[in-house]
Write a structure and sequence with these properties.
The protein is mostly beta strands. 6% of the residues lie in helices and 46% in strands. The radius of gyration is 17 Å and the shape is globular. InterPro entries: Lipid/polyisoprenoid-bd_YceI, TTHA0802/YceI-like_sf.
């Protein structure tokens, strides 16, 4: 069992998680994607799961759901991930009905709102993309992990709508023979990608937390 991780994604939802700014992942300008060497592992889209969680200010009215990964590959050399990428189908974004408890409201209504031009505008931007730019050992003294037992620090370019930024987050990764598994959970600031409801300073947008929690469990098999 070795280390390193792919990354994800991507994908996310609109508002925010209760993680708070202290748990936000490191976000920088887009980085160059280096050529990776090694064997190719195809991401198993039937077992790979991507979740999102969002709230209003103060952690109120949590909403959560899932988004589907459509395809992707990881590159593994000498038991370690050296690169990879994957695509997320933003049209597949769904809200878990269990998170919508208000009378008269449906999860499908929120689905439509998140997919509209108010947020992700999926008709114009149907795909989110993640490309790994570096993988390093995880050091708990330098960055907090929301996943116990993190082994690696993953950096990659996350593209949402027409904006691409580089994010870095801890992950628990295992490279074992013909299979790679990875688990991660991290928080991003949606506004960094220009995702705002109405206008940045509007009362409606202010009521929604900027933090979005992304979680994923990923499996990839050697081709």
């Amino acid at each position: 069992m070795k280390q390193t991780v792919p990354a994800l994604i991507m994908m996310l939802a609109l508002a925010a998680c209760g993680g708070g700014a202290a748990n936000q992942t490191k976000t920088e300008e887009k980085q160059e994607v280096s050529a990776a060497t090694g064997a190719t592992y195809a991401i198993d889209t039937t077992t790979t799961a991507v979740q999102w969680r969002a709230t209003h200010k103060g952690g109120f009215a949590p909403r959560f759901g899932a988004i589907k990964v459509t395809d992707g590959n990881l590159i593994v050399d000498n038991g370690a991930i050296t690169g990879g990428n994957f695509n997320v189908n933003m049209i597949s974004l769904t809200t878990d009905p269990a998170s919508v408890t208000e009378a008269g409201k449906k999860s499908t209504d929120l689905d439509g709102h998140l997919k509209s031009g108010d947020f992700f505008d999926v008709e114009k931007y149907p795909t989110a993309k993640f490309e790994i730019t570096s993988v390093a050992p995880y050091d708990s003294t330098k960055q907090q992990s929301l996943v116990p037992g993190a082994t690696n620090l993953i950096s990659g370019n996350l593209t949402l709508k027409d904006s691409t930024l580089n994010i870095t987050f801890p992950a628990l990764v295992s490279v074992n023979g013909n299979e790679v598994t990875a688990t991660a959970k991290f928080v991003i600031d949606r506004s960094a990608w220009g995702i705002s409801y109405k206008t940045e300073g509007s009362p409606e947008n202010w009521m929604i937390s900027k933090d979005v929690e992304i979680g994923f469990s990923l499996r990839a098999d050697k081709k």
